[in-house]
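Journal club side-thread
Mid-discussion, someone asked how the predicted structure for our own chain would compare to the paper's figures. Pasting it here so we can look after the session.
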Amino acid sequence: MTGLIAAFLVFTFASGAEAATLRIVALGDSLTAGYGIPRTAAFPARLEAALRAKGLDVKVENAGVSGETASQGLARLDWSVPQGTDAVIVELGANDMLRGLDPAVTRKALTEIVQRLRKRGITVLLAGMKAAPNMGRPYREAFDKIFPDIAEAEGVLLYPFFLEGIAGDQALNLPDGLHPTPEGVDRIVSGILPMAEQLVVRARETAAR
């Protein structure tokens, strides 16, 4: 546990504050939904377990829809992220890339998602994606800049590459080569966990204002 998070938890305990369970929504595609694996092994469930193991009182909801693009995520944003949500992990864009959609369309949709969440006072962690090598250099350069650019412009947390450590690893992916096995999900959770802890801290700070 980082010093920042430990200090925050100590302060909360010492002050006698009884914080409610922090509600996090994982808004994404099949990588969030848990395509091909039990829902209990999917990213939201495994992340919730990892955060709780750190002593953090959280609930991570699975709002993943297989095959979804960023624009489709935007279209269902309001009902997928209900009132009372404290934080959202946005994991969208992989299907845009696989379909070769214009990166400008993906950028616009993701930007609007982040802006609308922020206007609601919801803390955001943007989970980045990278274009496959076969997409060609111009496409890769345009697509790969989307996530860091939005994070910087909107002042939200960024995990640069959601599939860091598992992309291309046959042992950590299903036979389709695109979706993680339960072991692959655990690798994703291990990588993103420090940023998820920061998300919890920021969300708690926002709720306390």
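Post-session note: Confidence is low (pLDDT under 50) at residues 9-17.
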